[in-house]
Amino acid sequence: DLSGGGMQLHVRNWVPVGSRMRLIFALGTDPQEVDAFVVALSVMRPGPRRSFYRVHCRFVDMPRSERERVVRFIFRKQIDFRQRGVA
To answer: Can you give the pLDDT at residue 43?
Structure first.
């Protein structure tokens, strides 16, 4: 789950709240990867039917140009989902 301000991750190992993590990920077919730092805001333990922790993160010191790339990607995905009747 991704937004212009942060993201939600599913991870196998527990991450302490306040941890800083470096993430490198692709935005669909965009050839340039996003290289970002996030801080863990909250961590939810695995439930009875899940084997992963859910970590809510906020982007830290992300350049405006990178944040705008993320927002444009999300906007394009939302349009695509609406056109296909998914959302």
So the answer is: 95
